Amino acid sequence: MSVDQPTKISRFEVTGQSSHYWEDLAVGDVLRGPGVTVTDAHLVTWAGLTGDWVSLHLDEEYAASTGFGGRVGHGPLSLSLSLGLLTQTGWFGNVQAWLGLDEVRAHAPVRIGDTIRPTAELVAARRTSKPGRGLWTLAYTTVDQHARTVMTFTGSFLVACREV
């Protein structure tokens, strides 16, 4: 391509923002995230990022002597993967603030080689007292490749409204 030729502009622009707003979800709607297969790299990287170097997650010999019979993923790693995988759905681009988590429960261990997939059901939605904002509360359920629930929690978000 010569310098004199016009640059072709794509008709699609990637901005990191979504076109989904608070009004676009109704109580009972369910978001389904993609899956990820948990690897040794996930456990080691998580330990390095957080300083959580607990032997149950990183020392196969020690972990084999526990009731788990081998290494298992960090609970907060499973939680973070669940949040991140659902972010990939494109529904969170207009979130203005993450308000927190409640009712976090680890139901079963996640092991190296397990594939986890999250869903999130909108269980509460309301407008705030300030115009242009609403609250979503989502009930997350993460399952493994055997459809066994490994983690549940709720998360709340402040979300931009389309209409003020």
From TrEMBL:
Transmembrane segments: none annotated. SUPFAM superfamilies: Thioesterase/thiol ester dehydrase-isomerase. It comes from the Bacteria. Residues 31-129 form the MaoC-like domain. Belongs to the enoyl-CoA hydratase/isomerase family. This is Molybdenum cofactor biosynthesis protein MoeC. It comes from Embleya hyalina.
